[in-house]
Design a protein that fits this description.
27% of the residues lie in helices and 22% in strands. The protein is of the alpha+beta class and 773 residues long. Among the domains are: 271 residues, Distorted Sandwich (Beta-galactosidase, Chain A, domain 5); 211 residues, GH92 mannosidase domain (GH92 mannosidase fold), CATH 3.30.2080.10. The N terminus is likely disordered.
Length: 773
């Protein structure tokens, strides 16, 4: 063969190989990431921000529920109970798992049975070899049931497609007893009704993480029923589990109680059976209304294709060029970041609010599932860049509506399905609203928003706020986790001041700007740590900066993590630490701390340790970027390399901690692009280092912002130079307006750090009181 032809063939083959490896954004997503370890994600079918999260549940029985199965599914489990329609993605607490369906061949057993005893119940073994998970689609073969089950979902509905073996008797079991975070008596009341046309409706009220939560549902099948049986498995003694005697079923059309099971018989069928399910917090009638909102018939493939298109559009907000594993990690992170907060209003705009009454969202779509202590940091700022502005305005309108409907007049703290759980600390809906408004996002009542923010920040009975407003800190002898609450309140207050000042409300701005400095009141200069103070002003003793205990001085952390929480005034913190060199030394001591003699096994959320840096939990998430504030950005670059390599992998156990409704994932998306929102509300992003060769942000305003990393490789992890739109960028931060204007950010990477870049005080990110003050 002629040399020229050889070269041409080699070039074609190389291009073909590269193309084959370069999966689309959709195909690069792996929903199994996080389903093992402590990620707490689920692999099932969901649309972007979908109201229905249709996913398999592996083991959610009473007395067996554990922290490890907060999402209902755990990759290492050998059996699947069935498929339920509501799930959290990566939460540190469990609930949901509503309306579980299980296809069975032949006679249906009414109890789930034991995982290690095949055939003892309706649960079935399965193999990962036949399992498929893609955005909006999930499939698995149930070995014992001899059914191929496929799932897809629209915004408010879920479709199941069950393929039974030829000649098998096809039945579907509905179990209203099962629930994630299950325990005896969780179901307060429930109902199943079967109409003459075979439509099944019902509801249940649960008293789980969110007490008194009501959920209504409707199910229709593509084949007519040939038989049905409705059971109340409740005994005449207090409910102690599933294995109750039960009452004899009749051919009745309705059953009510606290332990309901329905079995629906389709006889022998020669085609796949499709089940269509919709849910509502309002009523059975509204569930029926939602049922036709995504797919009017039973076109499983049609809905799957439409949901895939929705995901392709959503994921297309970021175009990534990077090695295969990196693309999988980052696109899966983006996928997880686009699951919540989820749509919760019905197709007619109605939803059940925190007062347990029905309301109507007028001019916006109500969203819920707000894990705000986690997601204010990076998840919500990311959505302002990768989603249409309408999404963020819907979120803000939902927060305002929730405050107006709250019995206490407070913004959500940790809300799901419209119900408040009061989990975690702070009033972190405040920075979400302020960050959106300060970025120019509108579509909500700014006066009502600021009023809601102020009301939440001045409600004295909440979390020691009365003492905080009087003393300037939360006293530990009156309120647990006081050190954490003091600094988190102070940051939230700063965002109120920022928004109020921009709105011309100087009176409000002055009050909250003063409060924003309260973080200093709990910082002990002598020890160099944030500490809890008592009402008399003294610091609580004894003091151990490594101690982690729930309900102690700190929230899911210790002094090492929380001493760095002053996002609004990190220049001031550098000053209290003793200056640049002392700050760098303290940061290094945190990352290099020898943990070999410490045991944190009692604290479930403490995972992903690098010394005393805890990437598996949120208080540490901004810390690697703090070297920038001390004039040592090359140290930030080195620490980010250490974190990304050790905390993220394209595998089921590839997340070091709970994804927390997208926060762990949003951290990776931002960090991979080369910058991170250390202080939402500042309109700045702190520069780290990129982990992708090229990325394009297709912004909500139609502009494109490109990031390029020239010379990026494992051997070249340091930033040598940075340009913005062709001009040298001497500072270690980007402005939000610079990104939204479109343009190009170029990093030149090298094997050794540039210790002269962005070291001067004027080139560092903003700080409320400046540097060294």
């Amino acid at each position: 063969m002629r040399p020229g032809l050889v070269l041409a063939v080699v070039a074609v083959l190389a291009a073909s190989s590269a193309f084959a490896q370069d999966k689309s954004a959709y195909d690069a997503v792996d929903p199994f990431i996080g389903t093992g370890g402590d990620g707490h994600t689920f692999p099932g079918a969901v649309a972007p921000f979908g109201m229905v999260q249709l996913s398999p549940d592996t083991d959610i029985l009473p007395f067996k529920q554990s922290y490890a199965r907060a999402a209902g599914y755990r990759y290492s489990d050998p059996t699947i109970l069935g498929f339920s329609h509501t799930h959290f993605s990566g939460s540190g607490h469990s609930d949901l798992g509503d309306v579980l369906l299980a296809p069975v061949s032949g006679e249906a057993k009414l109890e789930p049975g034991e995982a290690d005893k095949p055939g003892s119940g309706y649960r079935s073994r399965f193999s990962h070899d036949g399992e498929v998970a893609q955005p909006g689609y999930y499939a698995v073969t149930l070995t014992d049931s001899q059914v191929r089950a496929e799932l897809t979902a629209g915004l408010r509905t879920g479709l199941h497609r069950y393929t039974f073996q030829k000649g098998a008797r096809a039945q579907v079991l509905l179990d209203l007893r099962t629930s994630i975070y299950n325990y005896p008596g969780k179901v307060s009341w429930s109902r199943i009704r079967v109409a003459e046309d075979g439509t099944i409706t019902g509801f249940r009220e649960t008293r789980g993480w969110a007490p008194g939560r009501q959920l209504y549902f409707v199910i229709r099948f593509s084949k007519p029923l040939v038989g049905k049986a409705l059971y109340n498995r409740e005994a005449d003694v207090p409910y102690k589990g599933f294995a109750q005697p039960g009452r004899t079923p009749g051919d009745r059309a309705q059953v009510e109680g606290r332990a309901l099971v329905g079995v629906f018989d389709f006889g022998t069928i020669d085609r796949p059976l499709v089940a269509k399910v919709a849910i509502s917090s309002v009523s059975e009638a509204n569930a029926v209304l939602n049922l036709s909102s995504d797919e009017k018939a039973f076109d499983f493939d049609g809905l799957r294709a439409r949901t895939r298109a929705d995901w392709e559009k959503a994921l297309g907000a970021v175009e990534i060029s990077a090695p295969a594993d990196t693309r999988t990690n980052v696109y899966t992170a983006l996928y997880h970041a686009l699951l919540a907060p989820s749509v919760f209003s019905d197709v007619d705009g109605r939803y059940r609010g925190p007062d347990n009454d029905v309301h109507e969202a007028k001019g916006f779509t109500f969203h819920s599932t707000f894990s705000l202590w986690d997601t204010f940091r990076a998840e919500h700022p990311l959505l302002t860049l990768v989603q249409p502005e309408r999404r963020t305005s819907d979120v803000v309108n939902s927060l305002i509506a929730s405050q107006q409907e709250s019995p206490y007049g407070l913004l959500p703290v940790w809300q799901f399905h419209g119900q408040e759980t009061w989990t975690m600390i702070g009033y972190h809906a405040v920075p979400v609203i302020a960050d959106a408004w300060l970025k120019g996002i509108r579509g909500f009542d700014e006066k009502a928003a600021l009023d809601a923010m102020v009301k939440s920040a001045t409600y004295a009975p909440y979390g020691g706020l009365g003492d905080y407003m009087t003393l300037g800190y939360v006293p530990i002898d009156k309120e647990p986790e006081a050190a954490s609450k003091t600094v988190e309140y102070a940051y939230d207050d700063w965002t109120i001041a920022r928004m109020a000042k921009a709105m011309g409300r100087s009176d409000v701005a002055a009050t909250f700007e003063k409060r924003a400095g309260n973080w200093r009141n709990s910082f002990d200069v002598k020890t160099g740590f944030l500490r809890a103070r008592k009402s008399d002003g003294t610091f609580r003793t004894p003091f151990d900066p490594t101690a982690i205990n729930y309900g102690s001085d700190y929230t899911e952390g210790n002094a090492w993590q929380y001493s760095w929480f002053a996002p609004q005034d990190l220049g001031g913190l550098v000053g209290l630490m003793g200056g640049d060199a002392a700050t760098v030394k303290k940061l290094d001591a945190m990352f290099d701390f020898d943990n070999s003699k410490l045991d944190y096994s009692h604290a479930e959320d403490i995972a992903g340790l690098i010394g005393q840096y805890i990437h598996g939990n949120e208080p540490s998430h901004h810390v690697a970027y703090l070297y920038d504030y001390a004039g040592a950005p090359w140290r930030t670059q080195a620490r980010l390399t250490q974190i990304v390599k050790s905390q993220y992998r394209p595998a089921p156990d590839g997340l070091s901690g709970n994804d927390d409704l997208g926060q762990m994932s949003a951290w990776l998306v931002f960090t991979s692009l080369g910058f991170y929102p250390v202080a939402p509300g500042s309109n700045e992003y702190v520069i780290g280092r990129p982990f992708v060769e090229r990325a394009v942000l297709n912004l909500p305003n139609g502009k494109r912002f490109t990031v390029r990393a020239v010379g990026l490789s494992d051997a070249a992890p340091y930033v040598v130079a940075v340009t913005l739109n062709g001009r040298p960028l001497p500072r270690s931060f980007l402005r939000d307006a610079e990104i939204r204007a479109g343009g190009e950010l170029v990093f030149t990477m090298g094997a050794t750090p540039n210790k002269a870049w962005a070291t001067g005080v004027k080139d560092r990110p903003m700080s409320m009181t400046g540097y060294g003050k």
